[in-house]
């Protein structure tokens, strides 16, 4: 639908002015507990027009990139060695290294130690990722980008300038920075002979979100899922660009994978997510055991990934929309004229609504 020129001009000016105010608010978020509360409230209530102005500016304009650069600079100053202490996981010569970046993100360096070839998932801070590559003495062959948000894609171009033959993979719909190899659902990506990834199209958080499954059969181990902002330990991403039905379909893609699959999420949200899960299902014994382990880990600033999908299916409420326990906890019942999938989408929508109010993650 076309709009008159003066209307477009008005909205443009309003967006810029609103964006400047929002940028100043976000940039000063760490200065006081009051500002942190305001930012949390703004980001949690995604139905508010002000949020969507801010979100559009973050994802579609240079203001978003400026904000990302500012946050990266502040994180480097606050966490010169990274926000968490992470240990590599070595499975039959395949080495997976979580790289803590920004305030709570994880990038991942995946190495075939036999060939010294590497792939990187979501290199948000190119300086930290490049330092890891140099320390390991490996050649970067591919960047696998889950989605467009700057805290996942911001380092793509800088790394490619350092590694000119490196391929950048992602979904064309998400306008990935530096993209060279667009992907569609179930495409495969080979790095050498033992690193084979399958990309799955999982919209909901963004319109073009992808996840990447490293096939364990190539090296005789479990597969590994790099889930970006779709699934976290005991959590899932917010539905910025999709309905609950869309997000449910994407989560069901994860639920269909083998139980021994290792989960490598895009953020260190484990403690917050498990505390929320405790509010929803206080009697879940497996969740309580995991929470106690996570509290010990975070008390020492240790990384909490990976978990396994078998674990997640027991305590992650966003993967449990089919369970009667969760339905009772939320006080929901299936309507007579409501099909099962629609009902589960309604369960997911209510769960996400409660999580958004509980904590802005």
Automatic annotation (TrEMBL):
Residues 104-267 form the Metallo-beta-lactamase domain. Gene3D superfamilies: Ribonuclease Z/Hydroxyacylglutathione hydrolase-like (3.60.15.10). Keywords: Hydrolase, Membrane, Metal-binding, Transmembrane, Transmembrane helix, Zinc. The lineage of its organism: Eukaryota, Metazoa, Chordata, Craniata, Vertebrata. One of its GO terms (biological process) is methylglyoxal catabolic process to D-lactate via S-lactoyl-glutathione. The chain crosses the membrane at residues 7-29. Its cofactor is Zn(2+). The keyword Membrane applies. Belongs to the metallo-beta-lactamase superfamily. Glyoxalase II family. One of its GO terms (cellular component) is mitochondrion. GO terms for molecular function: hydroxyacylglutathione hydrolase activity; metal ion binding. This is PNKD metallo-beta-lactamase domain containing. It comes from Pygocentrus nattereri (Red-bellied piranha).
């Amino acid at each position: 639908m076309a709009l008159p020129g003066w209307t477009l001009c008005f909205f443009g000016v309003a967006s810029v002015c609103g964006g400047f105010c929002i940028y100043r608010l976000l940039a000063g978020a760490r200065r006081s507990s009051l500002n942190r509360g305001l930012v949390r409230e703004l980001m949690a209530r995604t139905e508010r027009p002000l949020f969507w102005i801010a979100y559009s500016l973050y994802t579609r304009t240079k203001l978003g990139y400026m904000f990302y650069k500012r946050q990266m600079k502040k994180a480097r100053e606050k966490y010169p060695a990274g926000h968490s202490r992470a240990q590599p996981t070595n499975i039959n010569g395949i080495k997976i290294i979580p790289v803590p970046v920004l305030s709570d993100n994880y990038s991942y360096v995946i190495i075939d130690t036999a060939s010294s070839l590497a792939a990187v998932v979501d290199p948000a801070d190119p300086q930290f990722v490049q330092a890891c590559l140099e320390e390991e003495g490996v050649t970067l062959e591919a960047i696998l980008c889950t989605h467009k948000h700057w805290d996942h894609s911001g380092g793509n171009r800088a790394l490619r300038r350092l590694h000119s033959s490196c391929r950048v993979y992602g979904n064309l719909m998400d306008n990935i920075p530096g993209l060279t190899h667009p992907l569609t659902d179930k495409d495969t990506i080979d790095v050498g002979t033992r690193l084979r990834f399958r990309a799955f199209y999982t919209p909901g958080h963004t319109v073009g979100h992808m996840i990447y499954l490293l096939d364990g059969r190539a090296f005789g181990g479990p597969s590994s899922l790099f889930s970006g902002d779709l699934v976290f330990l005991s959590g899932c991403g917010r539905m910025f660009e999709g309905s609950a039905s869309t997000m449910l379909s994407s989560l069901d893609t994860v639920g269909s994978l083998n139980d021994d699959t290792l989960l490598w999420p895009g953020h260190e949200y484990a403690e917050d997510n498990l505390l929320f899960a405790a509010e929803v299902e206080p009697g879940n014994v497996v969740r309580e055991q995991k929470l106690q382990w996570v509290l010990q880990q975070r008390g020492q600033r240790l990384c909490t990934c990976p978990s396994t999908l078998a674990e997640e299916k027991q305590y992650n409420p966003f993967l449990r929309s089919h369970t009667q326990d969760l339905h009772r906890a939320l006080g929901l019942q299936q309507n007579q004229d409501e099909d099962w999938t629609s009902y589960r989408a309604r369960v997911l929508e209510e769960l996400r609504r409660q999580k958004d109010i509980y904590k802005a993650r």
